Amino acid sequence: MPGSIPFYQKHHRHYDRDYRSRETESRLSQYQSSSRYTAGSGSFTATGSRGLKASSHSLLDESRLSPIPKRAKPTYLAVDKENHIIGYVVPVFRSSQEFGAGLSDTEDVRARDSAAYMARRDLFTSGLEMERSELISRREAMRESANRISMSKRLHEHGEHFKRMNEDSLMHPPKFVIKPRSHTVWEKQCVRLHCTVSGWPDPRVVWYKNNVVINPYASPGKYKLESKYRMHTLEINRCDFDDTAQYRVSVMNSSGELSAIASVVVKRFRDDVDEFLPSPRYGPVSEYGIKFKTNIVDTFGVSFGREGETMTLGCTVIIYPALHRYEPDVQWYRDDVLLSPSKWHQMHWSGDRAMLTLAHLNKEDEGLYTLRVSTKSGYETYSAYVFVRDADAEVEGAPGAPLDVRCLDANKDYIIVTWKQPAVDGGGSILGYFVDRCEVETTHWVQCNDTPVKFARFPVTGLVEGRSYIFRVRAVNQSGMSRPSRVSEPVAAMDPADRARMRGTSAPWTGQIIVTEEEPAEGVVPGRPRELMVTEATKNYVVLSWKPPGEKGLEGVMYYVEKCVSGTDTWQRVNTEIPVKSPRFALFDLAEGKSYSFRVRCCNAAGVGEPSDPTEATTVGDKLDIPSAPGKVIPTRNTDTSVVVSWEASRDATDLVGYYIEGSVVGSDVWEPCNNKPVNVTRFICHGLITGETYVFRVRAVNAAGISQFSPESEPVEVKAAIASPAPPYGITVLECVRDSMVLSWKQPAFVGGADITGYFVDYREVVDGVPGQWHEANVRAISERAYRVCDLHENKNYQFQVRAANMAGVGIPSLPSETFLCEEWTIAVPGPPHDLQAREVRNDSLVLLWKPPVYQGRNPVNGFYVDMKEAEAPEEAWRGVNRDAAEKTFFKIKNLQEGESYIFRVRAQNQAGVGKPSDVTEPVAAETKPGTKEIVVDVDDDGVISLNFECGEMSPDSKFVWSKNYEDFSDTSRVTQETKGNKSKIIFNDPGEEDIGIYSCIVTHSDGASSSYTLSDEELKRLLEVSHDHKFPIIPLKSNLAVEMLEKGRVRFWLQAENMSANGKIDYIFNDNAVSQGEKYKMNFDKNTGVIEMTMDSLTPADEGTYSFQLQDGKATNQSSLVLIGDVFKQLQKESEFQSKEWVRKQGPHFIEYLSYEVTPECCVILKCKVGNIKKDTSAIWYKDGHEIKSEQSLSFTEGVLKLEIAQITKKDAGMYEVVLKDERGKDTSKLNLTDQGFKELMNEVFSFIANSSTPLKITSTDEGIRLYTFVSFYNDLLQVTWHYKDSPIAFSDRIKSGVVGEQLWLQITEPTEKDMGKYAIEFNDGKGGLRRTVELSGQAFDDAFAEFQRLKAAATAERNRARVAGGLPDVVTIQEGKALNLTCNISGNPVPEVTWLKNEKEITSDEHCILKFESGKFASFTITGVNTSDTGKYSILVKNKYGTESGDFTVSVFIPEEAAGKKK
After folding, report:
1. Distance from the Cα of residue 30 to its chain's centroid
2. Which of 432, 743, 750, 1316 is most exposed, with minimal Cβ within 10 Å?
3. Its pTM surpasses 0.70
């Protein structure tokens, strides 16, 4: 029945045709009218040249015309049970070109037959005759269809020819003849979406699911796409809830693009109950036997943050196979505790990347973070540690902030707050902690304790029942207060039973909690409290707890606490004023060391009950001891920046919170915390260490009582990586392919595990119709090369490959599966791609690229290579060739790189047939010389041995030096000998010759790419052979030849200095061809460390005139140096000897080594100084100026044998004759300095030069008066002469142009500047030597900017003078009694006169009888309330405004009632 609708369609608009657009219904109507057979009419007429139009009658009309029942005519429309059109079917022998241009003869016959049929139908009343007639008509239709096929073929050929002749005239955008319709289906049913599309050229059709392209190969068996006769179908097999989506079909050709949308709703049968559509399922799926493989890549490493910062951790998740809209279960953990979204943690999943954002880091966020990705096939995890350092202390030396503040044992007016001590104490022991509280929804923090508490627990009392609070803690030491900790979670002050009745609801964020009790029993005094006990006892406080009396329904029970000193019978009430509501109480101000007993009384409106049983005597003091120091600490290597530290746990530790670890570089004595959050294990990985440094570690234990002493220091450990298995290789490519084998290549893993890779293992699997098979081993034994031929493959089959690397630590995980490669024999003429590209010797402007030749040579042998390069971030079209001519070798040096830029490279091989396809590109290589990079150095030793030497600064224990010639292994190892010691290696040429010419290179394994090369050319070889010959037959080199010099007392010294002379060297001293020896006259000496050879004589006599020679011999090396002293040369030397002898005698008393001179400091101070020698305590040094002694209160000093007189700010008064006199009982010496006239002028010129050189560049600034040019000097002297120039001419100053000095600023002011003032300005400092000039160009943009700023400042000054102001007269707070009158007046200023507005609680108020507002004379604003009441309480503001600005004044009115105030006082 038409009204019977399946139950699952009742709430969906898809069950009828109402969802169709007008365009769709129009298309359907045209289609029905154009069909040869329709559901309602058999009439057929033809008009037009492009197609046929058929008239039709409705079913109602047909029933009216034909009284005889008849069978329905066949239809080509597909309908459902409700007779709703859902598509159509294609009849047999129907052509897509059925409706061609023009009307054929067969169609005329068919039209006539149709008319005859209509006439016969009216005549025949027998259904049998009608059926026979229909059979005949069908046979005729089949014959006509065959003829029509032939006609359609001819029409199609004609149309194609016409399109080729005039293509543009027939091109039109795609159109939907029939759009896909929406469907609602049962679960596990199939659904088909159909559409018919027209357009020329034939449109390209793409199906989308939720805007994601549908790939049937990605989900085998799930989707099927068909396109026939311009009808396109999407079939979805075995629908499930995930198939509930919006499907879009997009058609596109060169003339345009069009889309249509249909929805698919998948329902699950459940009796007759209608339910809403389920949301898409994002969890694991199990359909089709899919097995997921999850890889977590692009991971976050060990991270370091600082308190207050924001940190984001992220990983890329690759799930194979990839399913659209499939979302795995992604979870984040910290220290194995699942994290939930909060204001501190935000999780995000973008489809392939999981991210966790830590907002406003605190030390609580430190820990091991783990990402867990779960699918139906299992789960993968990745973990890394996050360290959070303390924020910079607000006070230097203050401790770090406490952490992990929590609230325990919350009651009506009592909460215990706990926290953990910080790792950083600021260099001084922590004196204690302050606890602050803040009521939720307020910002007012209240300190809970007056004196700091050392115990990491504190009971907070005095809370208001039903209100919620948050807490924070601050640490304090002698330097100051730390930053506050992160606030605790909100907690409500309420009875635990009430909280339980609220089903665990935590502290309400707002409002009060309504506490309800059972009907009280009036007039009953409560009984005795029960089970009184001391729950906590420290030296700062004692906490009592008890249970209420057993009676139920007592009225408003509260408690009084009493104490008694042990040994007495006197009980003293503690809370005499206010009884407590909670069965908990904290007592403070108890005497440490004394013993107390306690008891509690209940009270209510009926009276005070009997006391409870007293507690046992409790001694005030800390019951929890600070833990003992941890035991032995053992560090172990981990990575090149981390160390594993383990230790023995603290013995007999109670309530242990955890441990803090500290590390220090050996010898630095500076300890840094390794963790800022206590760890509760005895093993910890300390990250962020410096590679190669040696560290020691120590550990402290923590509990609520405090932090223990340090453990003994560990043994030193060097930070370097431990050995691990290598990472996966990558970049798998095919180098050659034949019928049954492929040659693969791959790239070395980025991480080799700290040890040499010993080999690789290759696996392969066959891929059939996009479905991969099982993995098979290609090689059993490890292969050392990064290329391998995989055999026993099948031709024309698809394969995938994976590679694993191995080292001494084991076999690493396999690489990701390669692309799918087809095994078919290559027949191309050009060679295949080179492989194994490596970049070496990377420098700021060059590098060397190495590669291996292609495995597939092509038809001819390879005869050269071309290198291409481009910037790493550049587009593909940026590739450019490096070498114009083909390179013959498999290496090439690339020059002229830009420093700091990253490049990628590729290589192409060529043969006679041409250039082959390029190799895989290299990884990006940054053109920069790494710090500590060394080059190969050639050396020739003393025996003439030639060697090449290379040193590596950063090596690991497994690093090796690998030498090669022309970047290949040595073909003849007998020609060189390699020697390696520590971080140095060299090769020695055994017999240097022409065979050794070439490029020698060295690379260090397990390093950061340390490599270098040296080119031994023919010319360089000849030079080295010459140097080698000189070393075989050596001459002792001399740094200086034989010379003579004078010593004190007139002694004469003959000396020379030799280079590299050994201790076995021999020296012969010759005078006039005769050897001289050590004696009274001659003193000889040979310093073996410096190579200095000397001979001294006390004096010279005429007999010493002649030739002196030193003859040297050291092994087989010899040398000689001579000095001729005859004639005038000897006489002058003899005279100088005699003078120095006398001078030595003179210097036995006090004397001047350097005479009096002056020095000008950069601060322009003048220092008079002289250097003296041979003085004693009683030697006097007296300064004189112009014959007058300078008194000691002036700036005199004497340091290191230098007398100084400092003149801080020299003036003309300081000119004069200065003199210094030295004297004692041994003698007297004098030194003078003339600082008058020319001497003083030269001194001042030097001072002026310092001032000029200290001047800053001339700058331009603007004021509200004009433009100012200025410069600063470090010191200004009144005698300084400066000249201002304008366009190279001195400036004539006036009232408009002025100059001056303010402090150390020299300025030129141009008042009310105009364009005439534009030009070049300069200031010239005169120092008597040419001076110094500073210039600035006041023109163009500089003048425009300065002039604009002047105008702005001038306008701002005017606005500031005239803007609206509230001059005063309003108090901050007004407290007034109800009923009184309030009158406030304030002064208003501004030009023009401001507008005045009054506000109450941010809302404008107007004057009325109750509140009178006045503004008089444009200056006085008054505010009057005739009779104040409580509704007038609030915040009031006056707002004044004119065109220059706005200002407001605020005051608060508080109205009180006398009776209430009196009540509060009572």
Report:
1. 63
2. 1316
3. no
Question: Residue 482's pLDDT is what?
Answer: 92
- What is the predicted pLDDT for the residue at 837? 92
pLDDT at 1166 exceeding the cut of 90:
no
> Distance between CA atoms of 1407 and 192, rounded to whole angstroms?
76
CB burial readout 562-573, b (16+ within 10 A) else e? bbbbeeeeeeee
Q: How confident is the model at residue 1152 (pLDDT cuts 50, 70, 90)?
A: confident
Tokens of 602: 């209940």
- Written as six digits, the tokens of 97 are 């070109």
- Strands 835-840 and 847-852, how do they pair? antiparallel
Measured CA to CA, the distance from residue 1138 to residue 1136 in angstroms comes to 5
Q: Which of 863, 870, 868 is nearest to 907 (CA)?
A: 868
The Cα–Cα gap between 1322 and 1339 comes to: 13
Neighbour-count burial for 129-142, b at 16+ CB within 10 Å, e otherwise:
ebeebbeebeeebe
What would the pLDDT profile of 1050-1071 be if each residue is shown by its tens digit? 889 999 999 878 888 889 999 9
Helix (H) or strand (E) holding 1030: helix 1018-1032
Spell out the residues 6+ positions from residue 1366 whose beta carbon is closer than 8 angstroms to its own: 1386, 1387, 1388, 1438, 1440, 1447, 1448, 1449
Quote the CA–CA distance of 1167 and 1203 in Å, as a whole number. Answer: 10
Q: Which residues make Cβ contacts (< 8 Å) with residue 766, sequence separation at least 6?
A: 772, 773, 794, 797, 798, 799
Contact 853, 923 (CB under 8 A): no
What is the pLDDT confidence band of residue 909, given thresholds at 50, 70 and 90?
Answer: very high
CA distance 1065 to 517: 111
pLDDT digits (tens, 9 = 90+) for 1335-1370: 989 888 988 888 888 888 888 888 888 888 888 778
Query: 1385-1388 — which CB contacts under 8 Å span 24+ positions?
Result: 1385/1420, 1385/1421, 1385/1422, 1385/1423, 1386/1420, 1386/1421, 1386/1438, 1386/1449, 1387/1419, 1387/1420, 1387/1421, 1388/1364, 1388/1415, 1388/1418, 1388/1419, 1388/1420, 1388/1421, 1388/1440
For residue 339, give the amino acid letter: L
Nearest to 847 by CA among 804, 887, 912, 905: 905
Q: Which of 507, 361, 490 is nearest to 438 (CA)?
A: 490
pLDDT at 75 over 80: no
Q: How many percent of the chain have pLDDT more than 90?
A: 31
User: Residue 318 gets which letter from DSSP?
Assistant: E
pLDDT digits (tens, 9 = 90+) for 158-174: 666 555 555 444 678 89
**Cα–Cα distance list, 529 to 398, 532, 1044, 1185 (Å):** 46, 7, 110, 98
Q: Helix, strand, or coil here: 487? A: coil
Is the peptide bond prior to 484 cis by the omega test (within 30 degrees of 0)? no
- 602-645 pLDDT, tens per residue? 988 788 888 898 888 888 877 778 889 999 999 988 888 899 99
Residue for token digits 């013959």?
Answer: 888
Contact criterion met (CB below 8 Å) for 1409 and 1426: yes
Confidence of residue 553 (pLDDT cuts 50, 70, 90): low
Residue type, 1307: W
The answer to whether residues 312 and 357 touch, using CB atoms and an 8 Å cutoff, is yes
Judged by DSSP in three states, 776 sits in strand
Angstrom distance (rounded) from CA 720 to CA 100: 84
